[in-house]
């Protein structure tokens, strides 16, 4: 199961199980030969066994778990501040944290206790000792190189999608940069693209490009009922590490969301804990697109034993991130009220609690959590995606990053392999 527990406070989800949906039956193509395999995301990527810092009992999810608190690592040495006073951004962050602290603490404690009562969140005794996958992602660099290629002209825009695998099983000649690539089959496919092997979920479409080459997505001709995005927000630590290129907030307004969203489309944006980013989304970005803010949710990150991954009151890193949810209200369709479209109201201040990935920038799938608010047949789009989901359309300059086979364990499987009851159920509730 991928949603382990659901209550009025939110959801406790198993992100690895969410990834594995749709991969129980895969076709592996090598040249023109095919074989049947089963793919599982590597377990060690979700083995966050202990908090990153010492956690005082007052800040722990479960204050009685003293043994776990003693096992946490020593805090790093604090850098000396040039000024003792907080800057305005830090003052705003602290004020916001105080406002939501009780929601985070009480909601997480309730969800963690409920999941424990069901037999989950037990201390792992068989942890995988293998190192994390360290595949070098060159996709963003390839997108830069692709800018030298001519744009597809207007006549060819009518054919803006292509099949992932040709009839002869070949995938090496697929144009990933100027057309959407579709896996139109009921099974995942392990294929070679640009000299690397990737696992592509069933009934999915993707475009590998950056901001300057997003036109094929617009010309794709599909209007979406759900748009999720995780922008590369400007961040000092990211700039220092050079893990990925940041995007100025003002540039996000150029995203063609009004051309991609159907009326009352649910728009969901991952936001860092900087208050300036939250204000920008609420007061500038969403109004610019015609999106009405309807709720703010929190993703809370806990260890495999249920402790916050960072102290709740840490002045440096918080154990939660935000999501801003809104509904697209096109001005040309003012005659249609939400009640006439059977729109499901979105509750405010819900929590999504999970063990996070140890891989940088990998977020949990929101498909099951958001399904009640958009419908089981909703057309779903992810912008700035770094992975693919069954039934979804995805765009980004690293859209295949976590689909690389180095992140999966592939095992041989018979063509007639039985799919477990849970996998069958999960496959039947996918968003399309």
Write the topology of this structure.
Elements: E1 3-7, E2 10-13, H1 15-20, E3 26-30, E4 33-41, H2 66-70, H3 88-117, H4 139-146, E5 161-163, E6 180-183, E7 188-193, E8 196-200, E9 204-208, H5 215-219, E10 224-229, H6 236-241, H7 257-260, E11 261-271, H8 275-289, E12 291-301, E13 320-328, E14 351-354, H9 367-374, E15 380-383, E16 393-396, E17 408-412, H10 421-428
Parallel strand pairs: 2-14, 3-7, 5-6, 9-16, 10-11, 10-15, 12-14, 15-16
Antiparallel strand pairs: 1-2, 3-4, 4-17, 6-9, 7-8, 11-13, 12-13
Give a brief outline of the structure.
This protein is α/β, with parallel strands linked by helices and 432 residues long. The protein has ten helices and 17 strands.
């Amino acid at each position: 199961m991928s949603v382990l527990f659901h209550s009025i406070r939110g959801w406790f989800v198993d992100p690895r199980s969410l990834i594995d949906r749709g991969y129980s039956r895969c076709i592996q193509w090598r040249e023109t030969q095919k074989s049947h395999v089963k793919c599982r995301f590597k377990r060690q990527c979700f083995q966050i066994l202990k908090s990153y810092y010492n956690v005082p009992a007052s800040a722990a999810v479960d204050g009685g778990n003293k043994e776990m608190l003693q096992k946490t690592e020593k805090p790093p040495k604090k850098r000396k501040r040039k000024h003792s006073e907080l800057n305005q951004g830090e003052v705003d962050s602290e004020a916001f944290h105080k406002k939501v602290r009780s929601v985070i603490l009480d909601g997480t404690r309730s969800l963690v206790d409920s999941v424990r009562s069901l037999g989950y969140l037990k201390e792992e005794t068989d942890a995988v000792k293998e190192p994390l996958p360290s595949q070098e992602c060159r996709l963003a660099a390839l997108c830069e190189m692709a800018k030298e290629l001519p744009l597809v002209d207007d006549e060819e825009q009518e054919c803006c999608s292509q099949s992932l695998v040709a009839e002869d099983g070949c995938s090496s000649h697929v144009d990933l940069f100027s057309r959407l690539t579709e896996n139109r089959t009921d099974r995942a496919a392990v294929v070679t693209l640009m000299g690397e092997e990737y696992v592509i979920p069933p009934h999915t479409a993707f475009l590998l490009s950056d901001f300057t080459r997003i036109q094929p997505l617009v010309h794709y001709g599909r209007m979406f009922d759900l748009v999720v995005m995780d922008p590369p927000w400007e961040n000092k630590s990211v700039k220092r590490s050079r893990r990925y290129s940041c995007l100025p907030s003002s540039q996000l307004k150029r995203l063609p969301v009004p051309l991609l969203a159907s009326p009352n489309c649910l728009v969901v944006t991952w936001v860092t804990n900087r208050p300036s980013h939250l204000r920008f989304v609420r007061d500038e970005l969403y109004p610019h697109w015609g999106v009405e803010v309807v709720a703010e949710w929190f993703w809370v990150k806990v260890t495999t034993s249920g402790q916050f991954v960072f102290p709740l009151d840490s002045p440096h890193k918080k154990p939660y991130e935000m999501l801003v949810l809104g509904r697209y209200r096109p001005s040309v369709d003012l005659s249609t009220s939400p009640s006439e479209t059977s729109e499901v109201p979105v509750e405010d201040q819900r929590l999504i609690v999970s063990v996070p990935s140890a891989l940088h920038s990998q977020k949990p799938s929101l498909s099951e959590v958001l399904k009640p608010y958009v419908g089981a047949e909703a057309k779903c789009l992810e912008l700035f995606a770094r992975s693919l989901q069954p039934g979804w359309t995805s765009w980004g300059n690293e859209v295949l990053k976590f689909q690389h086979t180095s992140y999966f364990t592939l095992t041989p499987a018979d063509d007639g392999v039985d799919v477990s009851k849970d996998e069958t159920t999960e496959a039947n509730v996918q968003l399309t």
